[in-house]
Amino acid sequence: MSEAMLNNPGLGTYRLKDDVAYQAVTTALALGYRTIDTAQMYDNEAAVGKAIADSPVSREEVFVTTKVWVDQLSREHFRRSVEQSLSRLNMNQVDLLLVHWPAPEGGIPMAEYLGELKAAQEAGLTRHIGVSNFTIAQIDEALSILGPNSLLTNQVEIHPYLPNRKLVEHCQKHDILVTGYMPLAVGRVNDDPVLNAIAENKGVKPAQVALAWIKQRGIITIPSSTRHEHLHSNLAAMDLELTVSESARIDRLGYGLRLANPSFAPAWDLD
Question: What is the pTM of this model?
Fold first, then answer.
């Protein structure tokens, strides 16, 4: 399963609402995408679920991820919020359930909400569990609570300007897949001289170069797009191979640009 996820980009649906989300998922599934990422906070679970239900692709072929928002992490709210997500998605089970962000420091204990996450899996509400936006220290704490091989993935911001090397290596050392969101740095990669030079030499687009670089690091990508052309291009990027020299040039672009950094974010690891 991990190899299939790595070799096929998922569709991220952040900021996609209503019919826009529905059409994006519909197009992505028709093109061959089989991993769809949503969240309670995105306010599009119903549109995503309807697109999957209306698609000729069987539900069993689609890997669906949703995430529990920070205001639903308590024992009082967690299970009910997951059941509400499933109702909106019109599904009995998701394939992967994530804690969207760790609870702010001094808030709900990690043992409480990870216990609820595990209970949701044991109740059959999700096949796999994982986390998102967890630091190295938080991954270690999570593993001390749940045990080894309990978490499928840690979903974090990854793009050429934020390689997140130490965190990626730490997760991979513990056999936790890394899923990179915002892989195109909200379009910034399209104007990058280094990525454009590599892309021109290969006859591809700079966004494809960025996605190929992430894939070659063993990281799953979930770019978001609504346009058929871009969805097709992102899918084709999985067949692109970069040379060692090209990858090294992209490696040097990292400077710690963090685009997802809300006030409740944890104390990030620095490369």
Answer: 0.97
